[in-house]
Amino acid sequence: MARNTNLTLAAEKLFLSKPAVSISLKELEKQLNRTLFDRLPNSLRLNTNGEKLLILADELLARAQLLESLFDGEALSGELKIGCSKSIGNHVLPELLAGFRQHSGHKEQQVKILNSEDVCRKLANFELDIGLIEADIPRKGQVHLPWWQDRMCLIAATDHPLCQRTRLSYGDLSGQNWILREIGSGSRDIFTQCLAPNLNQWNMALELNDSEAIINAVSTGLGLACVSELTAKWALDDNRVKELPLDVVITHPLFITYQQHKYKTPVFEAFLKYCQQYGEQKIEVIP
């Protein structure tokens, strides 16, 4: 119920009737002598008491999962729920996950690809175990670890006049049309914090929630974009778009994040360590 905020959805996931779930919740609150949810017209919202209990409930579920696989002979067992922002999910996670599976033998991972804000929200609700994100948006109760740095690219259609220049300053970019990711994404945060304040004037031509869609829109001449080098690499190699030679390097920090009080299973610890080692290798190859 904490994850669904709705008795009907919770009942469906538990394969129980709605009245049975409602009675069970009331009995639990009676035993604890505490309400766990605020009752809204069409939903339930976890209150402070419920948030405290959720931490322990998540640990109990994790330990129960470990108990089920205690004697199956696997070094690591249990499902690991990973949340990734879109650029990381599309361009980093496949290699990262393949390496982790080969290294650990663990293959039970569930992946959600969302924007950074949504990853953090699902972590707060204990719907995910760990997040790999691009936005610096630490939340109370969440550990937010620097991972490694990506570089941001300014891209334009191949026939854009600015592509003929060998060097550009912020002044050369003023007055241009820009295609942006949605609010809550790491790329949007970088544009807002690092690029926009240095432009005398800029226009938002389009807002899209997918980096590949942005690259396609840029290639047709709808505007410029500031995107992760991870995302832009394939389009640049295929000459679908051109990188603008800005005389300033804009870096893009990536982060590992998880709930501070979440129970850390062996597979969680193994994956966290592997991610950190992967990030260290990336740092070593960045010029």
Protein architecture, described:
The protein is elongated. It starts with 6 loop residues before the first helix and ends with a helix. The longest helix has 21 residues. α1 packs across α2. Helices cover 43% and strands 23% of the residues. The mean pLDDT is 85. Strands 3, 4, 5, 6, 9, 10 and 11 form a 7-stranded mixed β-sheet that branches. With 287 residues, the chain is α/β, with parallel strands linked by helices. It has 11 helices and 11 strands.
Secondary structure blueprint with pairings:
Blueprint: H1 7-14, H2 18-32, E1 37-39, E2 44-46, H3 48-68, E3 80-85, H4 86-91, H5 93-104, E4 109-114, H6 116-124, E5 130-133, E6 142-157, H7 170-173, E7 176-180, H8 186-195, E8 202-207, H9 211-219, E9 225-228, H10 229-237, E10 241-243, E11 251-259, H11 266-285
Parallel strand pairs: 3-4, 3-5, 7-8
Antiparallel strand pairs: 1-2, 5-11, 6-9, 6-10, 6-11
Helix pairs in contact: 1-2
Tell me, rounded to a whole number, the average pLDDT. 85
Count of helix runs: 11
Q: Per the principal axes of the C-alpha atoms, what is the gross shape? A: elongated
In the predicted model, the low-confidence regions spanning at least 5 consecutive residues are: none
Question: What is the strand tally?
Answer: 11
Structural class: alpha/beta
Termini Cα gap: 48 Å
Please compute the radius of gyration using only Cα atoms.
23 Å
Q: Work out the strand percent.
A: 15-25%
Largest sheet: 7 strands, mixed
Helix content: 40-55%
| N-to-C series of helices and strands | HHEEHEHHEHEEHEHEHEHEEH
